[in-house]
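dumping the sequnces here before i forget
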Amino acid sequence: MSTPDRLIESTRELLWERGYVGTSPRAIQQRAGAGQGSMYHHFSGKPDLALAAIGRTAGEMRAGVEEILSGPGTAAERVSAYLRREREVLRGCPIGRLTQDPEVMADPMLRGPVEETFAWLRDRLAAVLAEGRERGETGAGLDPAATASAVVAVLQGGYVLARAAASPEPFHQAVDGLLALLSRS
Amino acid sequence: MSTPDRLIESTRELLWERGYVGTSPRAIQQRAGAGQGSMYHHFSGKPDLALAAIGRTAGEMRAGVEEILSGPGTAAERVSAYLRREREVLRGCPIGRLTQDPEVMADPMLRGPVEETFAWLRDRLAAVLAEGRERGETGAGLDPAATASAVVAVLQGGYVLARAAASPEPFHQAVDGLLALLSRS
DNA sequence: GTCTATACGCGGATAGAC
DNA sequence: GTCTATCCGCGTATAGAC
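..and the predicted 3d for all of it:
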């Protein structure tokens, strides 16, 4: 991997683990095995690196979600597959966690990808749910947008519960609880 | 308000806005209008202050929730009232946000109240849901613990969506989506 | 109780040599 | 491209005077 790539990857990990405020250029360099001068040669500073890291993470996330949601199966099956997808629950969501970072939210450059990713995700899920409803598969009286937001919220909130409990269990409980409700509609 | 009280209050606000890692003793002192020496006279340091602040926030939160959940109405009405309760959506949950802070999670003293608060909340909601089920009011085939986790997760995740969108709308959408599902069960 | 002085390392970067 | 030197202010205290 090239030095810029290693720097971006190490920034991605640190942003995930410690957030933007908790991540220092020093720590990025050390984890990447790169020197001070090298880092500032390839990137203009911490915000620039963070932008590259967030963009890459957001892109991967979208691709992964799209693969499931555009895959085979009924709408309910695909939403269910998305909810039950394997996750590193205790690490939380690398994009969602940025939402808690005041410096990320204050910078339009950094905030943009976060906002877009969630807007896209909710829209995409709503489209799948609307499709299922039109086909008469499920959820006759449900508002696709509201249901989609609930689905995403259960995941994001599930991470919070899991970290609070230091256990993945509440995450899976929350998903099961939502899935039980969805399956009756 | 006494100086220690002002210090605790200012720590509470800063923890809410900026998290533990993003909150400095200096900032606490300035917001409280207290000097360096004064702060270290009353508290042993940042962790000590944070402990007092988190304890106070957790206590208030439990009291507020308990008032709604032990109030009048059917189980479904009380859960609904809890979900629809007025909230400063864009500020997020002052306890939930601590979950993202590696230094809070790494310190058992600070972590304790966070863990307990969510454990209590899920239990308390599950008890209300179980009560409703026994009375035949609602949710005949639902697992109270799973449903309770989903309820809490929707709130915590709703905050994430709202902050990502810089708008309370997705929070309320998620709550509506969950409530619609609950009302059919 | 509160203030001021002092300390030491880190955060975040720039400059210039190699 | 990468390294080392240097900078300045902040983070997080401790010490001791008032």
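The two ends of chain A are 49 Å apart (CA to CA).
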